[in-house]
Design brief:
Layout: H1 3-16, H2 22-34, H3 38-43, H4 51-65, H5 70-74, E1 76-79, E2 82-85, H6 98-110, E3 119-123, H7 129-137, E4 142-147, H8 150-162, E5 169-173, E6 185-190, H9 205-210, H10 225-237, E7 238-247, H11 253-259, E8 269-272, E9 278-284
Parallel strand pairs: 3-4, 3-6, 4-5, 6-7
Antiparallel strand pairs: 1-2, 7-9, 8-9
Helix pairs in contact: 1-2, 1-4, 2-4, 6-7
Bound molecules: S-adenosylmethionine (SAM).
The site of S-adenosylmethionine has 21 residues, from helix 7 and strand 4.
Length: 286
């Protein structure tokens, strides 16, 4: 099988599976299988795939045709210009979450922080994307990443090592901010679950069949529950003037902004993402 034949075969399989960008995805899969970049595929369409490469490629294409997300197959995802390891059981970092990182970096750059080394907490750290992107760009900060999922923490540890952050990022299993000591933290960042049960069926099969439900779904009867628990923990854990910033859905953002003052964070603000959707809600502790 040549590169050209491999691309044509995958494209047909992926189109049949209903994927809208079958050609691009086929190119990514062949390129990753060969450890080439995509430009090389154009230069060498007649290069053959060795038998082990071909077997791996066919397996990857079949998985993708069953709508498994590409990042779970290749085990790689890009976030804030950084390449993260991902895998089943951990949420794939999303581009809209970059708004949260940008907001933190703007805030951290603009505050004359108090003496000592500033500390951020990423509540629900998942793959580590938020904490790692922040620490990579704010080199004088330290971080703590908390998750209740062991699997997520395992992937976060891989990423922490990949970016050489073993001494700057502590990863720990826990229930939101329960175990963080009072008055010790400068910023709490979180992308908690925010999909409402009535939104589930409209999501892509890549999400509903493969991504961890516990990382996505909020309780129907109390959709703000994770936010309330994190905000109450942040009220305790943050130093005065500390930042609390959440990623959320456009549906929950106004509600969250309404409730944050009741949980001790007056004057919350909403930041939109690049598509114009209300995405991040943030406030500082008085
Ligand atoms: C939407 S994912 C976000 C993952 C990652 N921060 C990101 O943005 O890609 C939410 C994360 O919160 C974690 N989580 C859910 N409930 C939790 C709890 N009670 N305590 C700690 N982590 C929790 C999930 O395991 C999941 O990793």
């Amino acid at each position: 099988m040549t590169v050209r034949e491999a691309l044509a075969w995958a494209r047909a399989q992926l189109e049949q599976a209903g994927l809208s960008d079958a050609q691009r995805e086929a190119e990514i899969l062949v390129a990753m299988c060969l450890s080439w970049d995509r430009a090389q595929l154009i230069a060498c369409p007649d290069a053959p795939l060795a038998v082990p490469q071909r077997r791996r490629y066919e397996c990857w294409v079949r998985r993708r045709a069953r709508r498994e997300p590409l990042p779970y197959i290749t085990r790689r995802a890009w976030f804030y210009g950084l390449e993260f390891t991902v895998g089943r059981g951990v949420l794939i970092p999303r581009p809209e979450t970059e708004v949260l990182v940008e907001l933190f970096l703007r805030w951290a750059g603009g505050t004359g922080r108090s003496a000592g080394i500033p500390m951020l907490v990423d509540a629900g750290v998942g793959s580590g994307a938020i904490a790692i992107a922040c620490l990579q760009n704010a080199p004088h900060w330290l971080g703590v990443g908390i998750d209740r999922s062991r699997r997520a923490l395992h992937i976060a540890q891989i990423n922490r090592r990949k970016f050489g952050l073993q001494t700057r990022l502590l990863l720990t299993q826990g229930d939101w901010l329960n175990m963080v000591r009072p008055g010790t933290v400068d910023a709490v960042l979180s992308n908690p679950p925010y999909v409402l049960p009535d939104e589930w069926d409209a999501l892509e099969p890549e999400i509903t069949r493969y991504e961890p439900r516990a990382a996505l779904l909020v309780p129907a009867d109390d959709p703000l529950q994770p936010y309330r628990r994190i905000a109450q923990g942040a009220r305790r854990a943050l130093k005065p003037s500390g930042l609390l910033a959440f990623e959320t859905s456009p549906r929950l953002a106004p509600l969250l902004a309404e409730y944050l003052p009741r949980w001790g964070f007056p004057h919350p603000q909403i930041q939109r993402d690049y598509s114009g959707a209300e995405r991040v809600v943030y406030a500082t502790k008085p």
